[in-house]
Design brief:
Elements: E1 2-5, H1 31-40, E2 44-50, H2 61-77, E3 84-88, H3 104-112, E4 122-125, H4 128-136, E5 140-144, H5 149-158, E6 168-169, H6 172-182
Length: about 180
């Protein structure tokens, strides 16, 4: 199964402020191990992340790639592998096709894996944009309560997404437990 993860608030700590350097990038406890467990259970892992801090001039592509290099190193040290990282560097006002909740990043992932659709994939996010992107691309959407997850959950109570019931987990480790148990 293909598992697509948002980055900020799902894998690494996120408090609403831009993460501009590898020194500011800190994994959520258990998230790196969760990615490795998913890989070791035979699942493929991809990341789709909005990174408008590039367009805003807060950091550059080199800084972003350093953060992603660190992420990949940690996952590999834990025995896992991230198959693909896609990101949107655009400002929200740029009206690109890749910024979540649009599906451009997920379309890239689908094409990378030579899939006809993402109907068997799971999109894990902490924001409504993540969940909507996943659903719009045909994925099953899952909410984690880390990052913006609690705020997103409150908003979903009053404004559900097209009537979908979105499974909720405390963190990425909980998602990994669920996916692995469901695939046995």
């Amino acid at each position: 199964m293909l598992i697509i993860l948002d980055r900020d608030g799902v894998i690494n700590k996120y408090d609403g402020n831009y993460i501009c350097s590898v020194d500011e990038w800190h994994p959520i406890p258990g998230s790196i191990e969760a990615v490795a467990r998913l890989c070791n259970a035979g699942h493929r892992v991809a990341i789709a992340t909005n990174q408008s801090g590039i367009a805003r001039g807060y950091y550059d592509v080199d800084a972003l790639e350093a953060m992603h290099d660190r992420l990949e190193q940690l996952v590999e040290a834990a025995g896992g592998c991230i198959d693909l990282i896609t990101y949107c560097p655009h400002h929200p006002d740029d009206h690109c096709g890749c910024r979540k909740p649009l599906t451009g990043l997920l379309d890239r992932i689908r094409d990378h894996f030579h899939l006809d659709s993402l109907s068997g994939a799971i999109m894990v996010g902490d924001s409504r944009k993540d969940l909507e992107a996943g659903l719009n691309a045909g994925c099953r959407a899952v909410l984690v309560m880390t990052g913006n997850g609690e705020e997103t959950a409150r908003h979903l109570e009053s404004r559900p997404i097209r009537g979908h019931t979105i499974p909720r987990f405390d963190n990425l480790a909980g998602v990994a437990d669920w996916v692995i148990a469901d695939s046995l």
